[in-house]
Amino acid sequence: MQSILHLIDGLSSREKAYFRKSAQTHPTHRDKNYLKLYNLIVSNPKMEVAQLKTKLKGTKILTHFTAEMNYLFDQLMRSLLNYNLNKNNTAQILKSIGYIEILLLKDNKHRARKLLNFAKKLAYKSEDFALIIKLIDLEERILFKQGILNFIKKLEALGEERQEVTNKIQNINRLRVLKERVRDFQYSHIFLNYPEQYPDIFLNPLLLDKTNVLSLTALENFYYTKVVTGYVTRNYDDAVIASKIYLDFLEKNNDLFPKTKFLPALSNYLLSLGNVADKKQFFKVLKKLEALESDKTLPQFYINYIKYGRQLDLAYKLKDDKYSEKILLEANDFLNRDSHLLAEAQRDYFFYYMIRACIDLRKFEKAQELMTLWYELGVQEFLISIRRLCRMIIVFELGWLQMLESEVQTSYKVLKKHKRYGRLEKVCISCFRKIVKRPFKQKDFLQQLEAQLLEIKGNQDENKLLEYIDFHEWCVKKLETMV
What are the tens digits of pLDDT across the range 210-239? Predict the structure, then answer.
């Protein structure tokens, strides 16, 4: 039921106006009930189901609450279907298919053929291959009804067309699978040092040769995969080049791809530019992102997530404390305002960016405040090491040695359980364990840790997490503050 409330909260003003107008067309007693429900929900944004039931206490609507809510949902969807019927090519094609079906039932083959030609042309323009298959099926039905000359040849031509379209669909699906398999390495391996060990992915002909790509839709998946490949293999210069090509491709074909495609493309481009510390190009691309803030059809919280998250990352890579402090304040306002809208992975990354900035700026009280909130919300497994190590650093910096002892024990158990107990985790936990036992020698232990972290930093098989946060740099800074 909560999903129905969210649906109503997300309606645009025009969609609401259209719904009210359509609701007045055939008023009935039951219509009055669903309109009462609708008006109550609209007048109380962000309301929970329990609150709605409380407001309906003592009414007949509450007696049949589930049925009334489902009826409201049905009316809403009918209204939205009609409202959006001509909003995009897919909707127009589906409408045409419905018309063609009716025309064939009425034996109006001529009009059906005319409408089919229009729908098919639109479907090819949109690369809506699944609907093209349906339209080919309808075209064959028209041929069977007409019984025209050269009937067999036309059927054979349609068979060949169906096979060609099917090949394009399979080509798109294969590239989508490859894209997801490459993305998966970010979570399973963090970074991949030896991609040649996975030839079925990274030496796949579909990714090696663009001529094997059969459509623009497939090419979009191809370019996106190239961007992600550059990132997970830490070939950041390649990722920058691939990101520019991908964004140029989307801009050139903006009539084919939805605006929402541009947001992850811009996000990944900014990430790549941050990784190579290209400040000039970064701000050029950032302007493209900020230009989308005026488009209220796009999720503004996601735009802000990219805007602040990527700038925090750039400031950290540039070691620009003044810039980092400025963005940290803006990011904190965004977190307080819109964090509930973020998906789990987005939320985790945003907390990590902010806590990393706090550690780098030595704002450990704020880092602890954010860490406490992050712990309340949970974390995805691939960021567990980052969070546990940052947590121990914050507690240590705040001088809470008794709590540090507990954190060391818990971190050891958690990281072992999740099989995240690599050399980096071992040396950090070992150092903090020694500090807890002999705090008067903490400088000696930190000097030992600094040497170990420097060694890890130079080993590509062990330094993956240092790409996220440079624990060695923190250790050096900490030693500089000690007498």
Answer: 999 999 999 999 999 999 999 999 999 999
Q: What are 338-393's pLDDT values in tens digits?
A: 988 999 989 999 999 999 999 999 999 999 999 999 988 877 777 899 999 999 99
Angle, alpha carbons 332-338-340 (nearest 5°): 115
Specify whether the CB–CB gap between 38 and 79 falls below 8 A: no
d(Cα 288, Cα 262) in Å, to the nearest integer? Answer: 10
What is residue 30's predicted lDDT score, i.e. its pLDDT?
47
Instruction: Look up residue 155 and give its amino acid.
Output: L
Residue tagged 């400040």 (tokens): 279
Asked whether the beta carbons of 357 and 316 are under 8 A apart, the reply is yes
Which residue, 137, 138, 141, 21, is CA-closest to 79?
21
Tokens of 290: 């900020």
Tell me, letter by letter, the H, E, C secondary structure of the chain.
CHHHHHHHHCCCHHHHHHHHHHHCCCCCHHHHHHHHHHHHHHCCCCCCHHHHHHHCCCCHHHHCHHHHHHHHHHHHHHHHHHHCCCCCHHHHHHHHHHHHHHHHHCCCHHHHHHHHHHHHHHHHHHCCHHHHHHHHHHHHHHHHHHCCCCHHHHHHHHHHHHHHHHHHHHHHHHHHHHHHHHHHHHHHCCCCCCHHHCHHHHCCHHHHCHHHCCCHHHHHHHHHHHHHHHHHCCCHHHHHHHHHHHHHHHHHCCCCCCHHHHHHHHHHHHHHHHHCCCHHHHHHHHHHHHHHHHCCCCCHHHHHHHHHHHHHHHHHHHCCHHHHHHHHHHHHHHHHHHHHHCCHHHHHHHHHHHHHHHHHCCCHHHHHHHHHHHHHHCCCHHHHHHHHHHHHHHHHHCCCHHHHHHHHHHHHHHHHHCCCCCHHHHHHHHHHHHHHHCHHHHHHHHHHHHHHHHHHHCCCCCCHHHHCCCHHHHHHHHHHHCC
